[in-house]
Amino acid sequence: MEKQTKDDGEINMHDEMRRAFALLSGKWKLEILWLLNQRIHRFGELRREITGITQHMLTAQLRELEADGLISRTVFAEVPPRVEYEITSKARGLGPTMEALTAWWQIHRDSVPPKRSVSSGRKAKTS
């Protein structure tokens, strides 16, 4: 990818890709988008399906994705209130990228060592 300067009137693709990566960066955003690409989810469903995410972090990530126009949030006036999250058409454009990542992972997953759990990496506490 060629880095172009702003002086020549062209778009600096390095800066533009940095902006694109920033939209998707974060430990949980891609997983949230992947789940919402499959179907509409309620908050509790997302929380159950994303192992290790806290309620606070899920809320923050959903708010950022909504602010960036990648997901939409629908609140239903019911008791108790129901909130659903859905991927937007803008984010649906990432579908081919998600499919390519899935295909890549199916080929290479066996060559990636399993991630150690936090508890297995800790030293035993001595008194």
Automatic annotation (TrEMBL):
Q: Which InterPro entries match?
A: ArsR-like_HTH (IPR011991), HTH_HxlR (IPR002577), WH-like_DNA-bd_sf (IPR036388), WH_DNA-bd_sf (IPR036390)
Keyword annotations for this protein? Answer: DNA-binding, Transcription, Transcription regulation
Range of residues in the leader sequence: none
A Pfam family matched by this chain, by name?
HxlR
Cell membrane: present as a keyword of the record?
no
Task: Indicate the segments forming the HTH hxlR-type domain, all copies.
Answer: 15-113
Q: Which CDD domains match?
A: HTH_ARSR
Would you tell me the protein name for this molecule?
Helix-turn-helix domain-containing protein
